[in-house]
Write a sequence for this structure.
């Protein structure tokens, strides 16, 4: 785990330097707090699709994913039927994995159930924010294990501890920019300003 200088000379986490798109994602998106249900649903879904693949593959397809899944509007995705599944399985712009497609539709329905119970998905998710600083290089954490177990109990699919931890990194619940990364302090400042969602 290390940082390397990018095209502008700024040190960044080593994994993001392969393409300008990847650098932009690292600088402006990854590790910054998210508090809206729709954006959280998108991020968790894309982390689930990433399972077994590189994140770069998902990032390059992200705009097409958004089109294919109605902007990750859970109300719309929850209404997808077999015709939509067939359409998605023919869409070369996304990852055509039947299990992950079915899981996305299922998870949209579970998200609506959570909202109907009187809480937002954002409040639920941020309720698992750990108090301790992250350990660099880990693939899961006690908090991600706990959230994964509870999501599975609620009927969610493709939400293992590693997927949930990657989601926690992506939404800024933990700041996993390396301390020598130029974005570490910016992420930490954004986390300090962020108003944690409540039900």
């Amino acid at each position: 785990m290390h940082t390397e200088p990018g095209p502008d000379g700024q040190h960044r986490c080593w994994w993001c330097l392969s393409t300008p798109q990847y650098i932009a994602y690292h600088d402006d998106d990854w590790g910054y707090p998210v508090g809206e249900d729709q954006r959280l649903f998108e991020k968790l879904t894309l982390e689930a699709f990433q399972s077994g693949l590189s994140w770069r593959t998902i990032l390059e397809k992200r705009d097409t994913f958004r089109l294919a899944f109605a902007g990750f509007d859970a109300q719309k995705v929850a209404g997808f039927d077999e015709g939509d599944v067939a359409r998605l399985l023919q869409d070369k712009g996304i990852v055509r994995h039947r299990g992950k497609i079915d899981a996305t539709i299922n998870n949209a329905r579970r998200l609506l159930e959570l909202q109907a119970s009187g809480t937002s998905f954002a409040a639920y998710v941020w309720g698992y924010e750990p108090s301790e600083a992250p350990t660099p290089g880990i693939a899961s954490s006690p908090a991600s294990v706990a959230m994964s177990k509870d999501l599975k109990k609620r009927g969610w699919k493709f939400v293992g501890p590693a997927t949930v931890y990657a989601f926690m990194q992506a939404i800024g619940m933990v700041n996993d920019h390396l301390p020598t990364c130029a974005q570490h302090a910016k992420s930490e400042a954004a986390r300090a300003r962020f108003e944690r969602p409540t039900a």
About this structure: The radius of gyration is 17 Å. DSSP finds ten helices and two strands in the chain. The longest helix spans residues 98-116. Residues 3 and 80 are 42 Å apart (CA to CA).
